[in-house]
Amino acid sequence: MSSNSPVFRRLKQAVAPVIAFTVMAYFIFHSLEGERGLLTYWSMQDRVSEIARVLEETTDQRKSLEQHVISLRATHLDPDLLDERARAMLNTAHPDDVIIFHHDGYSDVATAAVAAK
């Protein structure tokens, strides 16, 4: 076969588009995949939003704890509340205290809530 045959002419015409398509496919693939691709970028954005949510929850929790600490300072402290919390946490009572035990202290509240519905 000679180099002037129609098959060789067609092959010469097809080489440039095939090379161009291959180069385009290469760049498109690597723009999507890899450590700097779009898929990684989108997953990082999801992770950033999740971390921002955790930061917000932690900040709210910290503000709550700071408020609790402020309420425990001597200038803001309610002695009756302190005594009540100490007795509840230590599970103790004064010998002169009258203690009334409830079998299920919240059962009537739950019954009232169910009846209200």
Task: Walk me through the structure.
By secondary structure, this protein is mainly α. It contains four helices and no strands. The chain has helices at 6-32, 38-71, 79-90, 107-116. The termini are far apart.
What's the average pLDDT? Answer: 81
In terms of structural class, how would the helical and strand content be classed? mainly alpha
Listing every helix as H and every strand as E from the N terminus to the C terminus, the arrangement reads HHHH
Q: What is the number of E strands?
A: 0
Largest sheet: none
Quickly count the helices.
4
Distance between the termini: 93 Å
CA-based gyration radius: 37 Å
Portion in strands = under 5%
Question: What fraction, in percent, of the residue positions are helical?
Answer: over 70%
Global outline: rod-shaped
Q: Which spans of ≥5 residues are poorly predicted at pLDDT below 50? A: none
How is this fold's topology laid out?
Elements (H helix, E strand, L loop, with lengths): L5 H27 L5 H34 L7 H12 L16 H10 L1
Q: Which labels suit this protein?
A:
117 residues, mainly alpha, 4 helices
Could you give a quick summary of the protein structure above?
The protein is mainly α. Helices cover 71% and strands 0% of the residues. The N and C termini lie far apart (93 Å).
